[in-house]
Batch of 2 targets.
Target 1
Amino acid sequence: MTKKYLLAEMTRPEFEAGNFDKVIIPVGSTENHGFHLPYFTDMKVAYELSKMVAERVDGLLVMPPISYGMSSHYAYFPMTIGVSAETLIHTLRDIMEQIIKNGIKKIFIMNGHDGNIAPIEIAARQIKIAHKDVVIATLPAWWITAGELLPPDTFEVWNGLGHAGEGETSIALALYPELVDMSKAKGIVPPLPDKVEIKWTFDELTNTGATGDPTKATKEKGEKMVKVLVDLLVDFFNDMEKKDWKYGLKLL
């Protein structure tokens, strides 16, 4: 019997029989990713990784992904369709409130887009303050985490970073290669300060709609990224289960 964990594809009896006590919410965006990656890349990566984790973690329900993010800084390129930070905060809060109302108090947010990091942080903090007994965890930037987990020589340019760059293109090649057109892959590594962040708009960094070097991407690199990220999250859920979802002072 096939394991069911996607709420969008379930009937009510299937949901009720699933004994779900935790959820994962994939959050992405709809935006231009250079000339070689599809518009739903941020959502698709977050959703696919969430499904792979749920395949290995009992009682984990994958929510339908949020496909629009805070993308105004990318909107200088065609058909980048986003929502305001305030809209995303309210959307995330409303979704979490309804999840809690349905009796689930363990919430994980799987983010796929840089512009969502601040809205997710604000929404999660607000819900936590309102519901002290709820556990909320996030993976805010898988593209940074993967680079930290993999050997330093895995990537060739900019530690794999970039919008539609080496890392993101590699993970796309691993997850949905049929939608990647490597013949059109082209990016640029913009000169930026090392430790201080400049709040840019994307047209100030690239004229291709991509940063980093997607030409260095390979399916093999992407498969390594997928493995370390999924293993990390499976280990997180298993460890939290062993601790009865307690953390901090409750473990002392």
Target 2
Amino acid sequence: MASNELPSNQDKLFTLAEDMADGCKTHEAVINLKQNKEVDLRTDLGTATASAGLYDASRSNKIVLGTTQTVADSNAKSYLGSARKILAVRHGETWSEAWLQTGFPNYSTAVPPTVAERQALLFSLNTYFIANPAHENAPLTVTAAQGLLLGTALSAARSAVNDGATDSGQKKNTRDTAVTGLRKRMRGLITELNQLLGDEDPRWMAFGLNMPGASNLPDVPDLPVLTAGAPGHVIADWPDVARADHYRVYKKVAGVDPDFLFALSVNDSDATLPGLPGGVAVSIRVTATNDSGESQPSLEAQIVVL
């Protein structure tokens, strides 16, 4: 018997919700839907997709902010490395009380290992060079002003990263709440349809759903389209299959394999098969799988490998 489990993948969930809303538009009046109508489903879907878009944008922004911090920190490391060499001429290579006034932490003359410590040292060196202007090295841009400039930039970048992480976390919570609401609405519609439609009523498919009385095995994939890729590689592509969670690709190399052999399993409806012998014909066929089992294989396609 076929089931109507909701997809775990967000994009597939949104696609199914759109199909279910289309089904409601066509059939809700005729079958007398009461609790879960098109307007309800589209409202919940709109909220979920909008919040998902905002969350995705916040994740992209986090990457940009992280890159800005990395650049600011790289500039800080370069400055601190130059400052350390200049100060070592005056105070010695190893840490001593003379280094205390510079702000180098951890009783060490090494550039600090953490971003927070490097930021603090930039501001300390700004104070140090203001008090000791003769120790600056303008040609190497090891100055009080440069220390302040880099420290301010790094501080701003780190603050932006923290704010971005907070914003992303809040938007994720909003997205998760909206998707949970959409799932509840979709499950409610499936429950209501179970009360209104027979197990083999074809109108189930108008909602993008399986007829409960039908087999839950995936449909048989169409003939795969084969393309020669890099030497020894073949690219196989085929349309998405109803009820398929995964696909299994089988190959038969002419003159080598007596029958089809399992090659690989993929989540999407395309695959690249590597390591094939050049100049030899290879046949490919595909099956679709889900928790109920494996479909019959597609028709076989053949290509000569480069």
